[in-house]
Amino acid sequence: MLDKVKPPHHQYALYLALQAINELEGAAPTESSIALAEIRSSLLTMPQPDVRLRLVPTEEQTSRLEEERQRIAAIYRREGADAARAGLKGTLLAYYRMDHEQWLRAGSPSAEDYLADLAKSPA
User: Fold this and answer.
1) Count of other CB atoms within 10 angstroms of residue 101
2) Which of 32, 51, 49, 53 minimizes the C-alpha distance to 96?
3) Per-residue pLDDT reduced to its tens digit, 58-93
4) CA distances from 61 to 21, 28, 52, 92, 101 (A)
5) What is the pLDDT of residue 2?
6) How many whole angstroms separate alpha carbon 114 and alpha carbon 123?
């Protein structure tokens, strides 16, 4: 399998990757694979950062996002950019348009919590 990978230097990279995840049983360790194992081992002792990520939209949410996108586009065509921006408030589309920094500042809410909090706040 490895001999079919082109260019040849990718074969070695793939070999190391497979060896690192223990997919090459009986493979003789190389200097590079030993170094990789040492690096991996030392990284495991380091504190793990707290990384918060948003979940990708579900199929149902993806459908809703497309419906909202079309609705906002229609508002934009009829009434302009300001009306379209105003139409985004309280939508799932607004939630997924937030960049990561904005999402973190908002408290890393789930889509459901974000929408529920907006529904509670006065218009």
Assistant:
1) 8
2) 53
3) 999 999 999 999 999 999 999 999 999 999 998 999
4) 35, 49, 20, 8, 22
5) 56
6) 15
